[in-house]
From TrEMBL:
HAMAP family xrefs: SecE
Protein name per UniProt: SecE/Sec61-gamma subunits of protein translocation complex domain-containing protein
GO biological process: intracellular protein transport; protein targeting
UniProt organism field: Hirsutella rhossiliensis
Family to which the UniProt record says this protein belongs: Belongs to the SecE/SEC61-gamma family.
PANTHER family: SEC61 GAMMA SUBUNIT (PTHR12309)
Residue ranges of the TM segments: 37-55
GO cellular component: endoplasmic reticulum membrane
Length: 70
């Protein structure tokens, strides 16, 4: 019984310990790194938006043909 209680206490303790180590290793990105990340995200947004627009542009006429025929 004592071993089970010890293992139940050990899991959160190790989680907190690893979390504190992670937070100490984290650092803010410098300006160059931040701009690079922002550019990558902007390109991703534009790409996904373009793909979504093209899919919707193709889907509307096909949907009208299928639904209009019924």
């Amino acid at each position: 019984m004592a071993d089970q209680a010890e293992s139940l206490i050990e899991v959160p303790r190790e989680f907190v310990k690893e979390g504190v180590q992670f937070m100490h290793k984290c650092q803010k990105p410098d300006k160059k790194e931040f701009l690079k990340i922002s550019q990558a995200i902007a390109i991703g947004f534009l790409t996904m938006g373009t793909v979504g627009y093209i899919v919707k542009l193709i889907h509307i006429p096909i949907n009208n043909i299928l639904v209009g025929a019924a």
